[in-house]
Amino acid sequence: MSQSVEFSVPRAEGVALLCKKLEQLGVTVKEVTVIPYGNKISCSYCSEDFSAVLYYNSKSPNCTKLVQQGGPEGLLERIEIKGAKQASPQSAFPVREIKDIPDMGDHIGTDESGKGDFFGPLVVAGVYVSDRTARLLEFLGVQDSKMSSDKKNRELAKQIREMLPPEDIELICLMPSTYNGLYLKMGNLNTMLGWAHSRIIENLLSRHEGCSNVVADQFGSEFVLKRALMERGRRANVLQTPKGERDIAVAAASVIARDEYLRQMDALCKRAGIDSLSELPKGAGSNVDWVAKVLADKLGKQALEAFAKLHFKNFDKI
């Protein structure tokens, strides 16, 4: 699934500046290609290939838009370019305020994985941390799952589960068949995320009566989660912010969610039973389209309901 933000920097500086910012995030820049009205930067991160495209208007001296095609979810939000133009409120990609996260002591963090991937489930996780466990998680090197390889996330998830008692971790995994049914009922991904995050928060608060603080990685308008919160959640101090993974509880939740997503993807690949596949591809790029067609030819198009999120445009291309 493509992601896009609007910003304005001089065209003469745009590509070099973007390449520098990508490399600072650990992204390998492989090639820069001139395309109509822009430049395409071919990249790789944790063995996953994707593209970043800088567009410009022929009548303007500035770049106008950056589009990420495939690759790590949320990467654009981590690219901070001085002088970037904030998207207007009418923009299809409004910029949400990145809030400071105060020292909260004991608190809960929530995050999700799989929302930008055609294949596989949507997983939402929550983790409760105390001052002590927060320090231990930091010592382990727990960070936003999008900034670690799949192998590293699996290792960290195992260590987190060994360190924390089961009551400190909560997980909701919506496998494709369930996801597709809920999407038809709710009609909106953010509504589904609000429902799942609110139940994670409610369940963890019920097991930790003294906890009153929550940090959620913001996935849409704050109103969506506020409306979905139940009794305990409405009484809690719930902070929603982009880049919520700066908080150790949210980072741990992102690792747990990613680990479960990867585990279920392995199971789905075995279920697909296609010898030429070592794994189902992540994201929603052209490689996903090819595998979807192979699966549809073998199992039938409607059988993809058990493997993929059918509201993605990839399904319409089959």
CATH architecture label of the largest domain: 2-Layer Sandwich
Structural class from helices and strands?
A: alpha+beta
Give the low-confidence spans.
82-95
Summed up, the domain count is 3
Q: What percent of residues are in strands?
A: 15-25%
- CATH first level of the largest domain: which class? Alpha Beta
Run of helices and strands: EHEEEEEEHHEHHEHHEHHH
Please work out how many helical segments DSSP would assign. 10
The count of strands amounts to 10
- Determine the CATH superfamily of the largest domain: Ribonuclease H-like superfamily/Ribonuclease H
Q: Report the span from N to C terminus.
A: 16 Å
Largest sheet: 5 strands, antiparallel
Helix content: 25-40%
Q: Strand order across the biggest sheet?
A: 1-5-4-3-2
Q: Which of globular, elongated, flat, extended, rod-shaped describes the shape?
A: globular
Quickly describe the structure.
The chain has 318 residues and is of the alpha+beta class. Helix content is 39%, strand content 21%. The chain has ten helices and ten strands.
What are the key terms here?
single chain, 318 residues, 5-stranded antiparallel sheet, 5-stranded mixed sheet
Describe this structure in words.
By secondary structure, the protein is an alpha+beta fold. The protein has 3 domains: 3-78; 107-264, 2-Layer Sandwich (Nucleotidyltransferase, domain 5), CATH 3.30.420.10; 274-316, no CATH class. It is built from 10 helices and 10 strands. The protein has helices at 11-24, 131-140, 150-163, 176-186, 189-207, 222-228, 231-235, 248-272, 286-299, 313-316, and strands spanning 3-6, 28-35, 38-45, 48-56, 63-69, 107-113, 122-129, 169-174, 213-217, 237-241. The strands form 2 sheets. The protein has a 5-stranded antiparallel sheet with strand order 1-5-4-3-2, covered by helices on one side. A 5-stranded mixed sheet has the order 8-7-6-9-10, with helices on both faces. A hairpin with a 6-residue loop joins strand 4 (48-56) and strand 5. Helix 3 (150-163) packs across helix 8 (248-272). The longest helix is centred in the last third of the chain and has 25 residues, at 248-272. It starts with a strand and ends with a helix. Residues 82-95 have low confidence and may be disordered.
